[in-house]
């Protein structure tokens, strides 16, 4: 029988974790005060989660400390064999060799990152574990840390803020254009362990970069919680892409929290490829867009088994000529449920926004819901939405099968063709893996 955990028990556990993190990270007092402020907010903050109950959250918190990866890891070869094998299967080693790029791997509470980035730091590209950035660049971190969130918004926000561990601090100096994708991967190695990386992205004026964030876990992990928070600040003329690749197994609950400020004339393209979104995935990113700024939110979702996916996205078009697109394509199988919610608020003249939602239902028990919201406070905004939900047409299958494909191959081809338009900016190494996963899922091999 599972031991009952009270709020008081959870707060005591969190307090111990705060003290341990503060000591281990040698963090300044101002950061520890932020953690304690979040601890005090935790008790009264609402949970606001459609899947995780308060009792389940308290059980996550109560999980005893477990041993992580070995200390003194300096290269991928020092990783445990099972984790190295997982990285090899994901093609990460190949990516690293081709781009000689930044690879960061977070496993529970630790981060490993490529020494190659030290050379790029001289040019103005700073990629550090967030704990290290707190010590090395306290003024910059203090100016940006938790400025787009409030600790009392929800219990998950408060919990993350109190025990955040790991994550990446990415700073791009004015005018710097990074010619290769930066890769950041999160892995959960132990069961019932909350992982709470905090990511801060700062793009100074006229910079360009592409950050790829991968999320995965070994298939034997049970009942884990991934609770990451990303705060992005794009200054005038900056161009940034954030691609999130999710391949969690069915036992993981994921709660990504992303918010971004897009400055004058800046562009931010955020693409989430949810091939394995876990037992449940609930997210509602928010974007504030200034004059002539542009934000594009793309979601590629694969619902399987009894998974629950609820993805939102709020855009505030605050500057003249600001624009935003919220688009999603979902393939929904078995008894899974996918809900998409998008809200675009036009608050300045000559703003434009569009919401689109397309879904393929692969099962009579699959469920799709979409809730677009368009709000205009000006009379010359252009806002629109469209949605299409349906099944694969029999005439499409018949045509492909008449060309020599069996039904399984024909179905795979139709699904890949349905998703392909949103995969155009994914590096080829990941695209190969994505296509493999889609084929396996459609054929029932996952």
Helix content: 25-40%
Given the helix and strand composition, which structural class is it? alpha/beta
Mass-distribution shape: globular
Which value, in Å, is the CA radius of gyration? 22 Å
Overall mean confidence score, pLDDT: 84
**Tally of individual domains:** 2
Organism: Thermococcus eurythermalis
Protein name: Fe-S cluster assembly protein SufB
Domain SUF system FeS cluster assembly SufBD N-terminal: 121-182
Domain SUF system FeS cluster assembly SufBD core: 187-418
For the structure shown, list the relevant keywords:
446 residues; alpha/beta; 2 domains; 14-stranded mixed β-sheet; ten-stranded mixed β-sheet; 12 helices; 24 strands; 35% strand
Describe this structure in words.
- The chain is globular and about 70 Å long.
- The relative contact order is 0.09.
- The model is unreliable at 64-71, 92-113, 187-193 and 217-221 (pLDDT under 50).
- Helix 2 (29-44) runs antiparallel to helix 9 (155-163).
- It has two domains: 7-283, no CATH class; 392-446, no CATH class.
- It has 446 residues and is of the alpha/beta class.
- The chain is built from twelve helices and 24 strands.
- The two termini are 31 Å apart.
- Strands 3, 4, 6, 7, 9, 10, 12, 13, 15, 16, 18, 19, 21 and 23 form a 14-stranded mixed sheet that branches. It has a ten-stranded mixed sheet with strand order 2-1-5-8-11-14-17-20-22-24, with helices on one face.
